[in-house]
Write a structure and sequence with these properties.
The chain is α/β, with parallel strands linked by helices. It contains ten helices and 16 strands.
Length: about 400
């Protein structure tokens, strides 16, 4: 452990109770995507208390904060650390004193942990800049609307958030990994994720005379079961193309064939080439399946995010950070998931990497993300802060070599 790593560890240890308190404040007061005004102000107040000057993004949601020298002064690109602010429309089922006070809204994906960890990393880096100065600048990005498609990463990029950025890093809670471990992977670590909506219209009627109708419910059921299978035969199975339905709406009475209905789901792919083709395959399959029933089907394909493709050299920096902060045994090799993450958009503009931050209490329960009972081990906050600050310092040092 070098002297900088020792100082980072000491600083984070001293601020850990405050970071946990910040996370609990955010958890108790969650805000949905693009409404994160209160959370934005809370984070801005924290950063100002460190002597920093955050810039709130248009719409009063999300913020950017630079630490250390500007790239225009040094000629060296900035290192960016990213967190996300938004919660989910999920009922909080946790039982702690910091349980969500907003009905039907909860931080069920760990964005409160991400935010507290990046605030902690920022506080460490601000202290180091004050005492010794940083040779290269670091930018903290707290983005809104990660859970929407298109997400807030696009807003940050449009607002100039990646200008002068040379590398960008982030963590994401991983409830299948024990706290004290960090999952890394070079190359793709998440998948492309899009929203698919299919609207059906047809001549309804009495269920006693289905032959005189366009049996929309039967057609809708055929689309549910057959289109994912067609996709699996039209797209290379190695791409992991997956269509899963989450919302089914049709009808209001058991003896009435309705005249309209709707399906909503997600389309996910492991690679960009398949992602670019899969939407057309779904559209063609829906039309082919519904044609025999005389039902009109309209497919709406909302592009979400491409895969997060970690830069392999950036992952090497993360590996060094894990070894320094936790020891090399804390590194876990993880597989690519079918989850989507709009951190992917940043990586289309600058190299970088996302890591999986272990949040499971050793020997404890494995929670699932996007569920109301998701309850991470709060020791992960300090670990995330140390890991991110150390990664930023290592990346900065390399830029100067």
């Amino acid at each position: 452990m070098n002297v900088y790593t020792q100082r980072v560890a000491k600083l984070v240890s001293s601020m850990e109770p405050a970071l946990i308190d910040l996370r609990r404040q955010i958890h108790a007061n969650p805000e949905l995507s693009r409404t994160e005004c209160q959370t934005t102000q809370l984070v801005a107040e924290q950063l100002r208390s460190f002597g920093l000057d955050p810039r709130i993004l248009p719409g009063e949601v999300g913020l950017i904060c630079d630490i250390g020298p500007a790239a225009v002064d040094t000629g060296v690109p900035l290192i960016a650390l990213r967190a996300d602010l938004d919660a989910l429309p999920v009922t909080d089922l946790t039982t702690g004193p910091y349980r969500s006070q907003v009905t039907g809204v909860a931080h069920a994906c760990g964005h409160d942990v991400h935010t507290a960890a990046v605030v902690g990393a920022g506080r460490v880096l601000a202290k180091l800049a004050e005492v010794d100065g940083l040779q290269t600048g670091v930018r903290l990005i707290f983005q809104p609307a990660e859970e929407l498609q298109p997400g807030g990463a696009i807003d940050v990029i449009a607002a100039g958030g990646l200008e002068s950025v040379g590398h960008i890093f982030a963590v994401h809670c991983e409830p299948s990994l024990d706290v004290g471990t960090i999952g890394l992977r070079g190359g793709p670590i998440t998948s492309a994720s899009d929203k698919i909506t299919v609207r059906f219209r047809g001549a309804g009627g009495h269920t006693s005379r289905p032959h005189l109708t366009n049996d929309l419910v039967y057609a809708l059921g055929a689309v549910i079961t057959q289109v994912p299978g067609i996709l699996s035969r039209q797209i290379d199975p190695r791409s992991g193309a997956n269509l899963t339905w989450g919302i089914v709406n049709a009808g209001s009475a058991p003896n009435v064939i309705p005249g309209n209905g709707m399906l909503e789901g997600t389309l996910r792919c492991l690679d960009i080439a398949s992602w670019e083709r899969a939407g057309d395959v779904v559209d063609q399959a829906v039309q082919a399946v519904t044609a025999p029933f005389g039902v009109r089907a309209e497919v709406q394909h909302d592009r979400g995010v491409p895969p997060v493709v970690n830069d392999r050299h950036a992952v090497q920096l993360q590996q060094r950070a894990v070894a320094e902060v936790l020891g090399p045994e804390a590194e876990i090799a993880v597989q690519q998931s079918l989850g989507g993450e709009d951190f992917a958009w940043y990586l289309t503009k600058a190299p970088g990497a996302m890591a999986r931050l272990g949040t499971r209490t050793p020997g404890g329960r494995t929670y699932d993300l996007h569920q109301g009972d998701f309850d991470p081990d709060e020791r992960a906050i300090a670990i995330g802060a140390k890991f991110l600050a150390t990664t930023a310092l290592l990346a900065s040092a390399e830029l100067l070599e």
